[in-house]
Amino acid sequence: MTQLFFPEYHDEDNPLLQPLVIVGAGGLGREVRVLVEQLNDQQPTWSLLGFYDDVPPATTLPLPYLGTVAELNATREAVAVAVAVGSSHARAAVVARLSAAYLSFPALIHPSVARAPYQQLQFGAGCIITQGCILTTDIRLGQHVLLNLGCTIGHDAVLEDFCSLMPHANVGGEAHLETAVYLGTNATVINRVRVGARTIVGAGAVAIRDLPADCTAVGVPARIIKNEE
Questions:
Q1: Per residue in 57-112, pLDDT tens?
Q2: Residue 176 is inside which H or E element, if any?
Q3: Beta-carbon neighbour count of residue 40 at 10 Å?
Q4: 7-106 domain in CATH 3.40.50.20?
């Protein structure tokens, strides 16, 4: 097994900073890097080490490229991991490969996102909640849920593991998104609608009634155009 060493773990200026790496060296990865820096601006917490990706980046990154997902999984050093992969299916596949006991998956929530105790919000491990998101009250997010810029989540909504919401997607009160649902940019799921596992709701679509698992729905109102076999 490859043993990786991260000398940056011992930050001379602040030895209490926790080491963190980002899996995914594309645009979302660079956005997550900004999110982590913004969290550090609010309260220094993370020592950002660099990026992992199975495909070496073709462009210059703001942090070092450290290797493949397999190499990260072989580490014997404790490190926090942010999985910056936009696709629900692909993100779940990456997380399944990251089984090393030394890896942890903190929830990263932008400091502008209100989350007072009285709101009764639950965030699973590995959630990434970016700038401008609004969550009201009594909301449960599973593990590795991604809320991109400016999403809104209404009261009593449930988003199961690996759900992905692209910028300005909206989930109404008491709606339920099952595992690995993907909402495109500006998509909306209205109150009390349930969306089945792994279903894609296209950009700008509005789901006004329940949708089954493993389909793609587009339009206003959202209509199924594809069923996965």
A1: 888 888 999 999 999 999 899 999 999 999 999 999 999 999 999 999 999 999 99
A2: strand 176-177
A3: 17
A4: yes
Model confidence over 1-41: pLDDT tens digits? 223 333 333 454 566 899 999 999 999 999 999 999 999 99
Tell me, yes or no, if the pTM score tops 0.85. Answer: yes
Same fold, 7-106 and 114-223: no
CA 223 to chain centre: 26
Identify the bridge partners of residue 194 per DSSP, sorted by sequence position.
176
CATH architecture label of 114-223: 3 Solenoid (2.160)
Both tokens of 136, joined, read 């009201």
Q: Where are the beta strands (DSSP E) in 28-119?
A: 46-52, 65-67, 79-83, 103-104, 108-109
Q: Give 58's DSSP letter.
A: S
Q: Which long-range contacts (CB under 8 A, 24 or more apart) does 168-176 make?
A: 173/136
What's the token pair of residue 77? 């050093």
Rounded alpha-carbon distances, angstroms, from residue 120 to 75, 116, 132, 154, 219: 36, 8, 19, 12, 33
Tell me the residue ranges of DSSP E strands in 32-85: 46-52, 65-67, 79-83
Closest CA to 24 of 134, 182, 143, 146: 146
Q: Are 196 and 215 in contact (CB under 8 A)?
A: yes
Identity of residue 53: D
Please report, for the chain, the start and end positions of each structural domain, with discontinuous segments joined by +.
7-106, 114-223
Residue 88: what are its φ and ψ, rounded to 5°?
-60, -50
- 10 Å CB burial of residue 194 (0-12, 13-18, 19+) is middle
